[in-house]
Amino acid sequence: MKREERRQAIMDLLVGARAVDLDDLADRFAVSRMTIHRDLDDLEQAGLLRKVRGGATIEAGTQFESDFRIRALQDGDAKTRMARAALEMVEPGMTVMVNDGSMAALLGASLTDKAPLTVITNNAAVIERLKDAPRVTLIALGGTYSAKFNGFFGVVTEDALSRLRADLAFISTPAVAGLRAFHMDDAAVRAKRAMMAAADRAVLLVNHARFGRSALHALADLGDFDAIITDAAPAPADRAAIDRAGLRLTIARD
User: Entry's PANTHER family (predicted)?
Assistant: First the structure.
């Protein structure tokens, strides 16, 4: 097996299992541990995984989030249910903001069901999906493109948002610890905060598995959101904290 084929196979395994063992990979591909080390080093350098003791993972860390292309292949059913629940909050005629992320990309593609709408987004996948959509006024935010997040960020993005106003902003996050949302990228945090400041209401989208996790940058208190949508009940301690705080939590079911 050629090097690139082996590395693609490693990523295919990670999409399904989320973590791989170095020794298992060496046995599977009949190569040395050092060869696998080099493969993992190069994939980590490309931002596709993070190395851990004895292997690698695509699970988020305090400073790591897997590449958009990987996340887009994960948790499809959960994302569909969350997008459906989020869509119920949208009414024709609204102006809606959609941030970066694979969950938000799925929601953005569904917004045509609520047309006519004005959609403001820095999410390249949403821009691609809605650019020719009938009865959708698309405002694509410029900025510096990030392949990792498949979106646009930076001063240009934030300045544009400061001049706009929306009814709803859909904000996704990879980590919630206690009663606060976190993100590992400061540029993404600034764009998300700018969207929240420019919208009458902000809705947080977060996979239930992301509760109980932290990341490098604090994004916002959960109380800053008008609603929180997740795909399943978080751990009892996390759910209890949300309930005690009187926050609105929607669990998207089939």
Answer: GLYCEROL-3-PHOSPHATE REGULON REPRESSOR, HTH-TYPE TRANSCRIPTIONAL REGULATOR SRLR-RELATED
**CA dihedral sign, ordered 71, 75, 80, 83:** negative
Half-sphere exposure at residue 77, Cβ-oriented, CA atoms within 13 angstroms: 3
Tens of pLDDT along 227-247? Answer: 999 999 999 999 999 999 999
Tokens of 76: 């499809």
DSSP 155-222: HHHHHHHHT--EEEEEEE-SEEETTEEEES-HHHHHHHHHHHHTEEEEEEE--GGGBT---SEEEEEG
| pTM of the complete model | 0.78
Whole-angstrom distance, CA of residue 127 vs CA of residue 143: 13
**Contact of 40 with 49, CB cutoff 8 Å:** yes
Are the CB atoms for 92 and 111 separated by under 8 Å?
Answer: no
Q: Determine contact, residues 94/124, Cβ cutoff 8 Å.
A: no
Residue 78 in contact with residue 254, Cβ under 8 Å? no
Sheet of strand 50-52, all strands in order from the earlier edge strand to the far edge: 19-21, 55-57, 50-52
pLDDT band at 193 (very low <50, low <70, confident <90, very high): very high
Reported confidence tier of residue 23, pLDDT bands at 50, 70, 90: confident
